[in-house]
Write a structure and sequence with these properties.
The structure is a single chain. With 162 residues, the protein is an alpha+beta fold. The chain contains 3 helices and 7 strands, in the order E-H-E-E-H-E-E-E-E-H. It has a single domain (7-161), classed as Thiol Ester Dehydrase, Chain A (Roll). A 7-stranded antiparallel sheet has the order 1-2-3-5-6-7-4, covered by helices on one side. Helices cover 19% and strands 40% of the residues. Strand 6 (126-135) and strand 7 (138-151) form a beta hairpin.
């Protein structure tokens, strides 16, 4: 089976860090396994027992917070969108909405999250995406995510506005 011309090979963590501004502990995408430009991305998050959020969520019964699963979906979508932006170092992709979020099964230490994001609509500075998170074949979370592309301010610009 040949690969479609719009499909790109996966990305490793170092490649992801060249595209996304997130870093530990907020970088929630470890690898990209499928990438169809402007259409779809499939990424992996390996959920390890030493994630900082497990200390307090919940002691004795660690569960990955649903909001972080949605954030992981958004970061996967951000990889898809930001990879198309030439001047991405001067931009940030930020949430502008989360709709129809559903959490169907707890995500535990040792789980591997498969993050599948499909573009619903895309304009130059706005996108809407459908995200689904799976552990194995089990759907664990889903949401419709809206995001906006905004100018990134450096520290000097931000302090001048104060």
């Amino acid at each position: 089976m040949s690969e479609s011309p719009s499909a790109n090979p996966g990305l490793e963590n170092i490649d992801i860090q060249r595209i996304l501004p997130h870093r530990f502990p907020m970088l929630l995408v470890d690898r990209v396994v499928e990438h169809q430009r402007k259409q779809r991305i499939v990424a992996i998050k390996n959920v390890t027992a030493n994630e900082p959020f497990f200390m307090g969520h919940f002691p004795g019964f660690p569960i990955m917070p649903g909001v972080l699963i949605v954030e992981a979906l958004a970061q996967a979508g951000g990889l898809l969108l930001l990879s198309e932006i030439e001047d991405r170092d001067s931009k940030l992709m930020v949430f502008s909405g989360i709709d129809n979020a559903r959490f169907r099964k707890p995500v535990l230490p040792g789980d591997t999250l498969r993050l599948e994001v499909n573009v619903i609509g895309w304009r130059s500075s706005f996108a809407k995406m459908e995200g689904k998170a799976y552990v194995g074949e089990q759907l664990v979370a889903e949401a419709v995510l809206s995001c906006a592309l905004v100018p990134r301010q450096d520290k000097k610009q931000a302090s001048e506005k104060k």
